[in-house]
Design a protein that fits this description.
This protein has helices at residues 3-7, 10-14, 24-34, 133-144, 163-176, 188-205, 211-215, 221-234, 242-249, 253-264, 268-285, 293-299, 305-316, 320-324, and strands spanning 19-21, 39-42, 49-56, 59-65, 70-73, 80-88, 91-95, 98-102, 106-110, 116-120, 125-132, 157-159. The strands form two sheets. A seven-stranded antiparallel β-sheet has the order 1-3-4-11-6-9-12, sandwiched between helices. Strands 2-5-10-7-8 form a five-stranded antiparallel β-sheet, with no helix packed on it. It is elongated, with a radius of gyration of 29 Å. The longest helix is centred in the middle third of the chain and has 18 residues, at 188-205. It folds into two domains: 3-214, Jelly Rolls (Sandwich), CATH 2.60.120; 221-324, Orthogonal Bundle (Arc Repressor Mutant, subunit A). With 326 residues, the protein is an alpha+beta fold.
Amino acid sequence: MQSWFRNGLRPLFNSPPVFASSDPHEARLVTSGALKEHDLVWRDGKVDCALRRAQLGALSFFILRYGAAVTIAPGELQHFMLFQVPLRGAAQIHVGRVSVAASRSMGAIISPTLPLQLDWGQGCEQLLLKIPRARIEKACSGLLGAELDAPVEFSPELSLDSAHGQAWQHQIGTLLCYLGESAGIVPIQWLRAQEEALIHHLLLCQKNNYTERLLQRPASAQKKVRVAAEYIHAHLQEALTLADIALASGSSIRSLTMAFQEHYRLSPMAYVRHERMEAARAELLQSAPGVRVTDVAFRWGFGHLGRFCSAYKTRYGETPMQSMRR
């Protein structure tokens, strides 16, 4: 752990604890309420429990000590991911089938759906960072451009001396600068962006069950749009569905829709309607005598003549018949 990182915790250390007690029963109740219901077995040493807490956006920061050595068995956390690192002392953190020897240079990433047991040594005091599971899964889905088919599960060990671990400390340190400040001084857009960056760092740098897919070199959004647009133009007079277009471009419906919104400010199906209207107008402007508006509209996929004429006039400032007479 970098010394500047610990110094950044001073606002949290200097704040009054939300709870301090030498009562074992009270300590378990309060920590259960702040984190999760758990079994707590007191071992060696004197109970000297204190809990400090700060909230920044969706992120919850804690400094927790029990004083005595304890074994904590919360089972699965379910609704949040937890980062733990000792500020004093050491702990053995059992996450799924992996045991992490947590120290000031080794933190633990505790996934929401993995069973958990913690053995804190006497005098251990830890920093805890709680991140909502929903935020992690939403970010992972966004990076993949697809819905998740399983919960996100991280490798538990996070070396704070590694490049990824040092970058992780810098990102948390940026947020810690605002601990103790009033809500109005932290721009909500900035805070949201920092939260997203922190979660993205975790997903892209900490090994997890989606790492291989996340780090694959995906087709660029521009390429997806180009392939989809070529398919649309080749089949413009045929029945087209969003699923057909996504399949032809090799992308998910969600990622294709996001790519079209970024490139055209239109959904894929709105783009289809736009291109069909352009094709119908081009035909009307070059039509030979005797061509009927109805036939042109139907040829380009407009099944309701009245709606076609109304949309046409709104877009081009003239009726289809006026275009034909040019």
